[in-house]
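To whoever is covering the structure queue this week,

Two jobs came back overnight. Logging them here so there's a record in the thread.

Job A:
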Amino acid sequence: MLYIPLRVKTIILEEVFELIRMGVLIPIKFTPTNPGMNFDFQHDFLQGAIILTEYGVHFISQDVNIPYFADDYINTLRKTAEPDEEIKGYVSEGLTCLRNHLGRAAAILLRLAAEHTLAQLIESTKNTISSEQERRAFSDRIRKANIVIEQRAEVTFQKLESSNGLIPDKDYFRNMVSKRLRAAFHSIRDLGGTAAHLSGVIQLGEVRDHYTLFASSVYPITMQIIQYHDEVRSHLPS
């Protein structure tokens, strides 16, 4: 039971130190040297008091609540499957950017995480197609899409929707791919594309919501499909 209040106090202390590091707070105490002269004071950096800086006022006026730290976010992803080091790196650095009001960088890093997840799905889909001719046709379409992520994603989603054996044979799961995965992926891709151009307007709240979208739709649905592919391949003759 002692762990919980200690953990809470530690989190609060870490947040205070982070705000000091960012310049939002400053550990200082002002002591008036003359009660009748408000502008005459001494300062002491060792008193354990903190004040809000001018930058801190601006920071608070534009603050966006980030409901998770990187560890918490990664633990959410783990509920479906252990994320690889590349995903961990993208989301950890992205959330750090977001907490420091660097929404443009956070959006681009999230897009990279989504693109990496798509690359895993493409490879898994290719390896699960049983027909050599069908596999070659899928690979050719991916190759023709080249580096255009939107097209690579659509080739993959359409293949999952149209072929038997690549997703569980249930209308519910097919709708998850057709409606949730497609929409979520393209929304993250579009936000990251906008962020890559300095003329694009990026709202911190919108970026935060897309991190939630990745954790609730893109990552879990993709990982469930890949897990299904692993199961399918495990029953194929060696």
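Job B:
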Amino acid sequence: MNTKLLPLLIILILMECKKENETLTTSNQEVFFQCDYINYAWVYQHSGWIIDSSGDVRGYKLPKVWNFVDSLGFISCINMKRNIEQLDTTFTKIDKDSLAKYVDKILDASKGIITDPKTVMFDAGSTLFSGFIYDSKSKQYKQVIIKQTGDQFIDNKSTEANEIYNWMINIR
């Protein structure tokens, strides 16, 4: 073997190993995506939908008790299950291949730069598009902000987040 090619071959092998380790483990993960709308102006409004591991897009409107992510972006598995129990409408079903395509983008989207909130409207409320990464050790979901629109605009600058957002806005 040519000794000049050996360092290049080692680098390529190491790069490929890193890619394999950086995959989203989806077993035991019930929720992958959420679209959540809240408006406190005039009359309180809270509605949205969740895409689960079966590809079902199920919605909620004015849930009695809703568990939000904490200040670090985490929600426990138990609280996520409580939210799932409040889903009262089935909108559609995402086919398996399409769901897998966008689930595969969540990890890279989680590495995107998140912009500071910018006020762009008043009294319109906010719609937050999110993905989730489940950690089976801590039994928590980590929210990945894809984009927030409405009164406060927040953007995830990653290409993957943009692709997920463009897909999510066409669901329902």
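Note for Job B: Residues 5-21 have pLDDT under 50 and may be disordered.

Please reply-all if you pick these up so we don't duplicate work.
Q.
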